[in-house]
Amino acid sequence: MNEIESTFVKPFYLKMMGLNALRTADDLWADLIAASRTVTVREVRWMLRTGHWRPVVMGAWFSVAVTAEPVRDDLMAAMSQSRGSLTAPPLAAAATLVAGTAAVPAMTSYIEFMTASAFRDGSENVVAAAVEHLRGEVAIVPTDEGRRAFLGIHDVAIRLGDAVRATRPH
Questions:
Q1: Range in 37-51, 92-106, 112-126, 145-159 the model is least confident about
Q2: N or C: which end of the chain has fewer CB within 10 A?
Q3: Which domain of life does the UniProt lineage start with (predicted)?
């Protein structure tokens, strides 16, 4: 385990993966904000690029805490390469904030992969709700449960970004 993983991944990923943040983000909020204030663009890009789900989860969350432009492409690549519910909801929530409508093709790619997969896990509905939120053309109509989950996880991402901007040195 390298320093990025021990500092920014291991302490948080279990509570922030998938939709867990809806229930558990507040439990580690102070520590998450403190880490978000120190994470660098280079570290976020590494997390998003590694291809391993644990760092990707936290790369998604920390992407809302750094300057958007340098991480945007890595975030969209991680979204299009996601393969399930552990990474897709945080990636979709972050992508709507960091990349906006530019993330729609990556999210659509994920939805198409999941709907053709034998391993459908419901996360395609959360991602479809993100596309719908951006007023993009949805590959599938999200379920009401998917919409509620997206709005919840999106709210956590907004709160995290706002909290970091309020406390990060300028």
A1: 112-126
A2: C
A3: Bacteria
> For residue 75, which of 67, 39, 135 has the smallest C-alpha distance?
67
Show the tokens assigned to 164: 């970091």
Listed residue (126, 120, 160, 166) closest to 142, CA to CA: 126
DSSP the chain: --HHIIIIITTTHHHHSTTTHHHHGGGGHHHHHHHHHH--HHHHHHHHHS--HHHHHHHHHHHTTS-HHHHHHHHHHHHHH--STTTHHHHHHHHHHHTGGGGHHHHHHHHHHHHHSTT--SHHHHHHHHHHHTTPPPSSPPPHHHHHHHHHHHHHHHHHHHHHHHHS--
**pLDDT at residue 170 greater than cutoff 60:** no
C-alpha angle 149-153-159 in degrees, rounded to nearest 5? 150
Beta carbons within 8 Å of 7's beta carbon, 6+ residues apart: 35
Q: Where are the domains of the chain?
A: 3-167
Q: Distance from CA of residue 85 to its chain's centroid?
A: 11
CA quadruple 49, 50, 54, 59: dihedral, nearest 10: -30
